[in-house]
Amino acid sequence: MSQRLNEAYTWVRQNLFPEWDRDGAWKIKEGYGPVYHTQPSWELYEGECDLDNQRIYIAPKCLQKKSTNEIYNTITHEIAHAKSSGSHLEEGGWPQETEEAASRSRDLGLIELAVLIEQDKEDIAKLEEE
Asked: What is the DSSP string of 3-48?
């Protein structure tokens, strides 16, 4: 794993999800997870939460092309899936986890990150409506 990914994952866990995965069962990997290897849209892939194996995958291109806040946002998106064990639409699940992460970001004075997290949530809601 790249140092950049390791540092970003550690930061997001400590600052946005401090109560999650205290035993360190979840791992993050640079690469492509099992679901997106089979999808035709893998070129759009930035991350994946593999609930069965407790792994979060972040695409190498995401790490190469994204700002630190954008990487934090991608990791936040995937941890919210891991924490909620659910879909984007599940009431009180993923949407609630992202709202809480955005709120914590604002509390830390990281407005740009909060806006990215909120925008991601809105974009997913629009996609799910289609």
From this structure: HHHHHHHHHHHHHH-TTTTTT---EEEES--TTGGG-TTGGG--EE
Dist CA 57 CA 31 (whole Å) = 6
Quick: pLDDT tens for 73-88.
Answer: 999 999 999 988 766 5
The share of the chain scoring above pLDDT 90, in percent, equals 55
Contact, 46 vs 31, CB < 8 A?
Answer: no
Please state, in angstroms and rounded to a whole number, the distance separating the CA atoms of residues 10 and 96.
Answer: 21
Residue 27 has phi, psi (to 5 degrees) of -125, 155
pLDDT tens for 99-113 read 999 999 999 999 999
In whole angstroms, what separates CA 93 from the centre of its chain?
A: 14
Q: Which residues of 85-104 are buried (b: 16+ CB within 10 A; e: fewer)?
A: ebebeeeebbbbbbeebbeb
